[in-house]
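debug: dumping io for the single-chain case to check the tokenizer round-trip. Nothing else runs in this session.
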Amino acid sequence: MTKLPTPVLPATPPNPELPLQPVPSTSPQQQQQQASAKHYKGFVAGVFSGIAKLAVGHPFDTIKVRLQTSSSTRFSGPLACLTSTIRNEGIFGLYKGATPPLVGWMFMDSIMLGSLTFYRRLISTNFFPSYHPPNDPFLPPAVIPLPTYAHGLAGILSGCTVSFVAAPVEHIKARLQTQYSSSKSDRLYTGPIDALRKIYKYHGIRGIYHGLGATLIFRGCFFFWWGSYDVFSRWMRNNTSWSAPVINFWAGGLSAQVFWVMSYPSDVVKQRIMTDPLGGGLGDGERRFRRWREAARAVYKENGPKGYWRGFLPCFLRAFPANAMALVAFEGVMRALPE
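debug: decoded output
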């Protein structure tokens, strides 16, 4: 009887919002010789892909956050918000709060993907040591063999882990994005460092982590992201002749859209909490929301059920162009850098 090969535990599938590096075609010896060069190139290309994603995607995010945190009397919709922002603050008004995510994404993505791999291995080893996906004869060794709900569970755990880095990054970003004045002298915060300094001075580390609970709820929806990623990628492996990078790209993009559809209402509540005045010596107003449910009720009271979807269009439109530009930048830099 022929002995079946032992399944190889995988590396994590790539973040759907990050570009994908083509699978190397070199021999193992050549790969070992070029390892240091590839790490260097991958890091540099990743930085440029992050810049490209930010350049394309951040204006959409600014419009999204402003719609989420304002009433319909201020902006009737995405187009009104866009034209008002450009008219009053110029094109750079769309890039307010861009620095925190530019710096934070490198750490956030690394922690998210690293912890996702760890939790998948942990779940696979302890609960599904002999699991083989049904009707999936094309399962590549780079995919951890787990049922879909287990991939979703690993997503929840990784989302909660990365929340401790994401919460302060998103908090500062949201505060800067909702400053409407075109003059720096009229703004409470002149930039991310100033925001950190002032918030920490009057509210300490707890103020920096304002909105952590809401972030945990929002990123707990990674269940839908990574669960649907497994569903899409498995279907594509069985029903198309696409290469692994193409499958990863489309499965990643589609699963990211599933994630946003399922998580968007919680993102609206999170942004309300993160832009709520902290009060005290900061002098930014009186705090409205002490608990997550108070913010959720306020959204419903102001706009009804549709309030939980305010700003969804720019969020939905952002995903694919930002991802595509990140991919173009990543591959271009990888080709341009010397070996």
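debug: round-trip ok. Residues 6-13, 16-23 have pLDDT under 50 and may be disordered.
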